[in-house]
């Protein structure tokens, strides 16, 4: 059974490994990636953000973070699903839960950055209600697509 739970320190290793896997498959790790993955507690949670974890039979199979950008705007970041668990709608479920978490945090906007080669991810974001946007300053060299969701 798939469950979406709040991040706990015991999830740090899986959060890092799942995200390093997809980043290294398509791109190269960047400083912003390392900051977030090496210290999710300090870089995300202690700054007002949140991380959700998807588990399947008590094994971590997915992650998604909300990084606080400004008062009511959060960045959806580090969404990853284990290749072994893909095809089970985990991305959809953790995406919906992340949007709900953003509402709980008082967000009015969720922003994300991605790359056009990640077509399945982009399709998921459209299904979740995100729309194309531009004008945000990106810390990532790999990002060429910006999207946002108004809540």
Automatic annotation (TrEMBL):
Domain of life where this protein originates:
Bacteria
Write down the Pfam families for this protein, in alphabetical order. Answer: Acetyltransf_1
Q: Which residues form the signal peptide?
A: none
Q: Which UniProt keywords apply?
A: Transferase
InterPro entries, alphabetically? Answer: Acyl_CoA_acyltransferase, GNAT_dom, NAT_camello-type
Q: Which GO terms describe its molecular function?
A: N-acetyltransferase activity
What are the residue boundaries of the N-acetyltransferase domain, all occurrences included? 2-151
Keyword Transferase in the entry? The reply is yes
TM segment ranges: none
Question: Entry's CDD domains?
Answer: NAT_SF (cd04301)
Can you say what this protein is called? Acetyltransferase (GNAT) family protein
UniProt organism field: Ekhidna lutea
């Amino acid at each position: 059974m798939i469950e979406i739970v709040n991040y706990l320190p015991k999830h740090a290793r899986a959060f890092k490994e799942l995200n390093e896997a997809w980043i290294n498959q398509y791109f190269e790790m960047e400083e912003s990636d390392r900051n977030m993955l090496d210290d999710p507690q300090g870089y995300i949670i202690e700054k007002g953000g949140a991380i959700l974890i998807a588990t399947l039979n008590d094994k971590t199979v997915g992650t998604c973070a909300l990084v606080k950008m400004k008062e009511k705007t959060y960045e959806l970041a580090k969404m990853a699903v284990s290749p072994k668990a893909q095809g089970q709608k985990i991305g959809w479920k953790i995406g919906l839960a992340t949007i709900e978490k953003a509402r709980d945090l008082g967000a009015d906007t969720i922003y994300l950055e991605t790359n056009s080669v990640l077509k399945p991810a982009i399709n998921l974001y459209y299904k979740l209600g995100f729309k194309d946007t531009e004008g945000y300053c990106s810390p990532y060299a790999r990002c060429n697509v910006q999207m946002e969701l108004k809540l």
